[in-house]
What we know:
This protein is mainly beta. It is 0% helix and 51% strand. It is built from no helices and 16 strands. The strands form 4 sheets. Strands 1-2-3-4 form a 4-stranded antiparallel β-sheet, with no helix packed on it. Strands 5-6-7-8 form a 4-stranded antiparallel β-sheet, with no helix packed on it. It is globular and about 50 Å long.
Amino acid sequence: MPAFGADDRTLLYAKSRFTGHYSPIARPRRHEFDIVKIIVDPDDSAPVAAPTELTQQHFFDLRSLSVSPDGERFLISTSGYPIGSLIEEFDIVKPLQIKGIFQPHVPSEPSLGASFGQAAYVGDGMQIVFTAATEGKDGNYDYSVYQMSDVTGGDLITLVQHSGMIDDLNVKNDGSIFISAGGKRYLVDKQAHVLR
């Protein structure tokens, strides 16, 4: 889940403080995440400076980390009790202050509330793409790809509807969006709203 900044020297990554479970019916997994920044020199194997912890949130869950194209902001997909799934944005220079919290509601979302997968900046960083669950057949969730405004959290667009899980969301520098699902990789055709 590491993400490079615009200068290719700033690296953000997630660290976990706890592996376990909070419920006897849950499997142990990583929790209490925070985001760390380190400056690296591509020509040297040693870091330029010591790592700096940007957040002190101890996020229960962390699904994705994305850095804006200008390298000034980062975006995470997480969850918080009791509010549920969230997409949060932070300024890298002032990370202890949350810049934005998004919880868009998608058509046919689960009755328990929004359930997001990964989220990332797209294009010039003024738009956010993310995956979110919808009620599928037989009580299973289907995950689709959506886009919204980073400025308002509105202007929600369904980029593609998908049946089943989406394992990975990846946005290239040119704005191309790819997903991985069922062991295959797809390009999201934003004009035709289909996977190729």
